[in-house]
Every structure is written in structure tokens, then in C-alpha cells.
Design a protein that fits this description.
By secondary structure, the protein is mostly helical. 74% of the residues lie in helices and 0% in strands. α4 packs parallel to α9 and α5 (72-113) packs antiparallel against α6.
Length: 244
């Protein structure tokens, strides 16, 4: 009988890179320096982010060596995939959220125009319609943004695993989160901490971001790799997937 413990998300394991790799600072600094290259530098960093994920996913310790140019294509295509998954959400927000606001404003304006002599009451009704539209419209945009923000964690993982448009199959991500809510909560917390680390460079006259931002990417990738291991370990059987 195997005594190996099931995969879990341990934020401390992501930070263990500091002890696993004595050259971690140099590697992060190289990636940060690449970000100074106009336009393509960001893609280079994103490609390294992806490769750190694969490195950790394979169970390797430390960090892979920066590959100047080799990660550029991967980062560019990851950026395109993220953009392709974001656009449908943006369009849906414009259609539904903007439609609610515009529709209620138009209806309110029509009521006000038809008010005739009772323009005060009609104007009040028009303002009320406008307020209702704003509440529903902006409320939709806020809720959908929060939903995609949470779902985006697993969508990033799925893009790294080779999927092109995971946004069109949210059930897979929702199912993974439902099966391992505790691990997902730790993943979210770990990524939140990484985000704080990424912003610390602003304190050093913004120049420090060139170090803290790629460091944040590295830690995020290692946490996502742990979440991927949890998802893989708790994947339902083929029969369950067919009826999901």
C-alpha cells in the first residue's frame, strides 16, 4: 500500500526556490532585464513564466536557465490565447452591461418626453429608469469580472497545459474547483501574495519592479504547478466526464 500523500498546494514550497537554487536571483534579474526590451521583452518574460510552470510541473527543483529568444514565441502565443479568452468576456459585458444602462436610459428618456405637462413626474421616472439601468449594468460587469477573476486562475493553468480557449468550457474549471476547494483557496491566497510581491518594486522608485515582477511570475508559476497536480490527482473518471 502506498503511503505517498496526495498532492496539495503549499505556498511555502513555492518559496523554497530560494534554497533550492543558489542562482535564483541572477536568473530573475536576467528576465527582468529582458523586460526592458521594447514590446518583445514582455513576451520573453511570459514565455519564461510558462517554462517555470512546466519545470515545476515535471517535479524539477530550482529554476530553469533563462533562454533568451527561445521563450519569446511561447510568451507571444500565451499572450494571444489570454487575449482570445478575454475578448468574449469583454464583449459580453458590453452587450449585457452596456445594454442594460443604455436601454433603461432610452426608456427613461422616452417616458420623460411623453410626460407632457406633468414633466416633473415624468422626469423623475426617467431618472429612476436610468438609475436602475446603472445598477443592473454595473452590477453585471462587477459580478462577471469577479467570476472571471476567480476562474482566470484555472484558465491560466489550462492555457499552460495546451488548451486554446478554456473560457468556452468553464465547467471543467468549475468542476476542478468544486472537487478541491481548499487547495484552490490556497492557490488563490498564494497568487494574491505573489501579486503583492510583484508590486513591492514600486517602493524602489519603480525600478525595482524589474526584479519583483519576474520574481512574482516565478512564484506564481510554481503555485500553479501545484494546483495542476491537485487537479490531475482529483480528475474524475472518463465515464464521469462524459456525463458531467
Amino acid at each position: 500500500m502506498s503511503t505517498e500523500s496526495p498532492p496539495s498546494v503549499n505556498i511555502g514550497n513555492a518559496f523554497a526556490v530560494f534554497s533550492e537554487d543558489p542562482d535564483w536571483m541572477k536568473k530573475v534579474a536576467i528576465v527582468g532585464a529582458c523586460m526592458l526590451i521594447p514590446f518583445v521583452g514582455v513576451f520573453q518574460a511570459l514565455g519564461y513564466f510558462h517554462r517555470v510552470f512546466e519545470h515545476a510541473r515535471a517535479g524539477e527543483k530550482g529554476l530553469p536557465d533563462p533562454a533568451l529568444g527561445a521563450d519569446l514565441g511561447t510568451g507571444f502565443f500565451d499572450w494571444l490565447k489570454n487575449l482570445g479568452n478575454l475578448l468574449p468576456v469583454m464583449l459580453l459585458n458590453i452587450m449585457i452591461g452596456g445594454g442594460c444602462i443604455l436601454g433603461c436610459v432610452l426608456v427613461g428618456g422616452a417616458v420623460g418626453a411623453a410626460g407632457g405637462d406633468d414633466s416633473g413626474a415624468a422626469g423623475g421616472i426617467g431618472v429612476l429608469f436610468g438609475m436602475v439601468g446603472a445598477i443592473f449594468g454595473y452590477g453585471w460587469i462587477l459580478l462577471s469580472s469577479m467570476f472571471v477573476g476567480v476562474l482566470g486562475i484555472d484558465i491560466t493553468r489550462r492555457i499552460f497545459c495546451g488548451e486554446n480557449f478554456p473560457i468556452f468550457s468553464p465547467g471543467a474549471s468549475l468542476g476542478a474547483i468544486k472537487r478541491s476547494p481548499g487547495a484552490f483557496l490556497m492557490t488563490w491566497l498564494g497568487l494574491f501574495i505573489c501579486g503583492l510581491i510583484g508590486g513591492l518594486g514600486v517602493i524602489a522608485c519603480y525600478v525595482g519592479v524589474l526584479f519583483t515582477m519576474p520574481l512574482s511570475f516565478v512564484l506564481r508559476a510554481r503555485i500553479l504547478a501545484q494546483w495542476d497536480a491537485v487537479v490531475a490527482a482529483n480528475q474524475p473518471s472518463t465515464e464521469a466526464l462524459e456525463t458531467y
